[in-house]
Amino acid sequence: SSGAAAAPLPEEDCMKLNPSFAGIALSSLLAIDLWASKRLGVCAGEGSAWGSARPLMKVIEVSGHGIPWLLGTFYGLCQSDSSAAREVLLNLLFALLLDLVMVAVVKGLVKRPRPTHNKMDMFVTISVDKYSFPSGHATRAALVCRFVLRHLVLAVPLRVLVVLWALIVSISRVMLGRHNMTDVLFGLLLGYALYGVVEHCWLSPATAPALFALW
């Protein structure tokens, strides 16, 4: 009837006449992020600007994937005959597992979709990998980089190569169209912070005797 109150429109259909400054800034940042990420996705497909470099970018992608790192660390742990080396490798394994869990949790909470120009041909994915934020490769690269620089004695050229590897892995995520720039930046920050957690919870024969008894 004409006297009945009109049903309210869904919130997403209501025009906000007085958007907050924070809302405008966030929307602008996301728009710039999407635009820049698409422009930088020069290896997102064979027909992209740098499509010929796509196979190389996918090799770099595999070098930062969690499965090779987990398998390699576990193999090294099983083959090691040094107690000091086993302690370092066990903590690296702990760091990699912590990284996987934290990235999965954040992706599940944020649920940001992958860029529209992404080709879903990634190496060994799980269901949560349909989400984009944060970049697990960037998180892992930052975490492994800090771990290696802290616990391995390397010459200066090798230390530089480790840092370059972490940066190249992170940049390749945008170039392949897998992630937006903010996914990678947050991933680097998260990985950097996770290393602090690993150091704080460092596993040793004194703090985790049961784990070391297995080896």
From TrEMBL:
<dbReference type="GO" id="GO:0005789">
    <property type="term" value="C:endoplasmic reticulum membrane"/>
</dbReference>
<dbReference type="GO" id="GO:0005637">
    <property type="term" value="C:nuclear inner membrane"/>
</dbReference>
<protein>
    <recommendedName>
        <fullName>Polyisoprenoid diphosphate/phosphate phosphohydrolase PLPP6</fullName>
        <ecNumber>3.6.1.68</ecNumber>
    </recommendedName>
</protein>
<feature type="transmembrane region" description="Helical">
    <location>
        <begin position="152"/>
        <end position="172"/>
    </location>
</feature>
<feature type="domain" description="Phosphatidic acid phosphatase type 2/haloperoxidase">
    <location>
        <begin position="88"/>
        <end position="199"/>
    </location>
</feature>
<dbReference type="GO" id="GO:0006629">
    <property type="term" value="P:lipid metabolic process"/>
</dbReference>
<keyword id="KW-0256">Endoplasmic reticulum</keyword>
<dbReference type="Pfam" id="PF01569">
    <property type="entry name" value="PAP2"/>
</dbReference>
<keyword id="KW-0812">Transmembrane</keyword>
<comment type="similarity">
    <text>Belongs to the PA-phosphatase related phosphoesterase family.</text>
</comment>
<keyword id="KW-0539">Nucleus</keyword>
<keyword id="KW-0443">Lipid metabolism</keyword>
<keyword id="KW-0472">Membrane</keyword>
<feature type="transmembrane region" description="Helical">
    <location>
        <begin position="192"/>
        <end position="214"/>
    </location>
</feature>
<keyword id="KW-0378">Hydrolase</keyword>
<dbReference type="InterPro" id="IPR000326">
    <property type="entry name" value="PAP2/HPO"/>
</dbReference>
<keyword id="KW-1133">Transmembrane helix</keyword>
<dbReference type="InterPro" id="IPR036938">
    <property type="entry name" value="PAP2/HPO_sf"/>
</dbReference>
<feature type="transmembrane region" description="Helical">
    <location>
        <begin position="89"/>
        <end position="110"/>
    </location>
</feature>
<dbReference type="GO" id="GO:0042392">
    <property type="term" value="F:sphingosine-1-phosphate phosphatase activity"/>
</dbReference>
